[in-house]
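Technical appendix A lists one of the benchmark inputs used to test multi-chain prediction within the project. The record comprises two sequence entries:
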Amino acid sequence: MGFMIPQASDSIQELSVEELRAKVGTGMEIVDAEEHMLLSMGPQHPSTHGVLRLLVELDGETVVNLAPDIGFLHTGIEKNMESKTYTKALVMTDRMDYLTPMTNNMVYIMAVEKLLGIEITPRAQTLRLILAELSRLASHLVWLGTSALDLAAMSVFLYCFREREYILDIFEMVSGQRMMVSYFRPGGLWRDVPDEFEPAVRKLLDFMPAKIADYEALLDQNPIFLERAKGVGVISGEQAVAWGLTGPSMRASGVDWDNRRDMPYGGYETYEFEVPVEHEGDVYARYRCRMREMRECLRLIRQGLDRLKPGPVNIDDHKIVPPPRAELGRSMEAVIHHFKLWTAGFTAPEGYVYQVIESPRGEIGCYLRGNGTNKPARVHFRGPSYVNLASLPLLANNSFVADLVAVIGSIDIVLGEIDR
Amino acid sequence: MTRDDMATDKLRAALGEAVEDVGDFRGERTIYIRRDKIVDACRLLRDDPELRYNLLSDIVADDYLPDYPRFAVSYHLLSMHHKHRLRLRVRVEDPDEGPPTMADVWPIATWLEMEVWDLMGVRFAGNGSLRRLFLPEDWQGHPLRKDYPLGYEEVQFSFNWEEINAKKPFAKE
């Protein structure tokens, strides 16, 4: 392998306006290109929500075209997982989308369980659903805080992080970790939730509706926020589907689709909840969608808590789930299982599965191939942030540079998941 | 008739021999399509009023080293109207002659194919945007391939700095 000098045309840093257009255009016609300039936005700009660099072609102050330059956070998570056992690879999933670790755990674990062909216990299923919804709530809080901060609404940010901290305390209570929880395990959960879990979540359910009303009061009557959100970054429902834009961003354009309701998984089919749909397709509609979704989260969590019954949280197969600690002193078989699980892990059959769930950002998918060994042969994640980012040039087309910030905030991207 | 069978039958009727194989695993249907017919297959699945697979969820490339054909590219489709998912799969012998780009059917395909090319090195014919996306522009190789070593870099200490630095193929200055 010799040293290869990068060609200017291969490097996004060196692109001219024409080359940019040829490489990453949205296919739209651009006129009067002589006066255009290129602006490099990021990667350290706080409004890009991580380390995202945007190369923006400007006509005066109007965005004509833009190219996302990503990869600053690439850590090779998919490759890394191939060298870990199925259980140990789980810890990588938290680190992709660090704002909603539970749903990331869930999609990977559900893919593993599908590959193994196992069913989990009802209590584990209910707890997973509650925690996934808590995670969605926490993620939406961060989205609301940061995207409002981009539009100069400082106090919302502080309030949102206060409530998010409460949810992270619940995560710490159940898993010992605030963010990188790795709480869902193949066959169930790491362990049952403590007794304080239910009162703590009920307390959240009691105070949260008033808090959401507070945020809305701060923003919905704020003329600056409304001015900057309404009619900005519009995308039609048809375009959203063609460009793979999923989640609340798609539902804000009038596409009535939610994997939780339409292709239910993990017991969602037995719960009552609404899927908020807005029709304007602008930044404000996406904001409305997520605000309404936060209320639906609370509804789901309440129903989940009401039907939470005592019972085992793990399946009874100690080839997959480690035996209880107390058994290790009495049973030789338990010792063998324990040793085998923490050294070699379990083996999964040959074959591949694709599991999709609804993450706070959209459709997160996990492609998992087993090859009969104890390690996955190939793991691939369809990161909703990654796919949603592709429609950014479309959303920001013909908007002002200042509105670009609002648009980036409104599609709610997490760079950890984009770069993986 | 299940939706899986309906899609398979319609593809068989339209493409004949180009439908190479059909597989079921854990309730998921996989239809193997010959490389040159994949765009036709996807267009049919998207436009047929009884199927309407309108969302391209993901494109995944898989490396089966040392088997032959070595690569397989999967297209995960979703029909929102009929609430059904389907997987099309293409066997790829030579990564430089991958399947044709799907950009005409779903514009998002350009973006998804860029990731596949960067990390797995399967080149999609007709996709002009294939460039390094996650990795630096001067990166060599495609890390998700099975023959790409993991833990390639040795740890440098003061006593072996010179020796390891001399072996490094890049980043010398």
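Strands of chain A lie at 37-41, 53-59, 62-69, 184-185, 188-189, 351-359, 362-370, 376-382. Chain A touches chain B through 54 residues (CB under 8 Å). Comparable benchmark entries are summarised in Table A2.
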